[in-house]
Amino acid sequence: MEQPLSEELLAMLVCPQTGQALRVARPEELADWTADGGFEGALIREDGRVAYPIRDGFPVLVEAEALIRKVDT
């Protein structure tokens, strides 16, 4: 997957809940997250506890749209 966001834009984006920095999820990390709607990428919060989807090339930084981490059972 190509870099969905420029480095300059990514440096400006932060988590709307905590203000923590975000980073682009690596392809292998995407399998750890789920959402009701599809997503082609994700931005993971600095602490790794929350991720936000990237849909149609745009990050969705809305708390209600945050991805859910899959739990191994």
Structure description:
By secondary structure, the chain is of the alpha+beta class. The protein has one domain (7-69): N-terminal domain of TfIIb. The chain has two helices and six strands; from the N terminus they run H-E-H-E-E-E-E-E. A four-stranded antiparallel β-sheet has the order 1-3-4-5, with no helix packed on it. A two-stranded antiparallel sheet has the order 2-6. The protein is globular. The protein starts with 6 loop residues before the first helix and ends with a strand. The model has no long low-confidence stretch (mean pLDDT 89).
Oligomer: single chain
Query: What value does the Rg take, in angstroms?
Result: 11 Å
Q: Helix fraction? A: 10-25%
**Remind me, CATH topology?**
N-terminal domain of TfIIb
Q: What gap, in angstroms, lies between the N and C termini? A: 29 Å
How big a fraction of the residues is strand? 25-35%
Parts with pLDDT < 50 across at least 5 consecutive residues: none
Mean pLDDT across residues: 89
- Strands ordered across the widest β-sheet: 1-3-4-5
Number of helices: 2
Can you tell me the overall shape? globular
The assigned CATH architecture is Single Sheet
Number of domains: 1
Order of helices and strands: HEHEEEEE
Please supply descriptive tags for the structure shown above.
N-terminal domain of TfIIb, globular, 26% strand, two-stranded antiparallel ribbon, 6 strands, 2 helices, 14% helix, alpha+beta, 73 residues, four-stranded antiparallel β-sheet
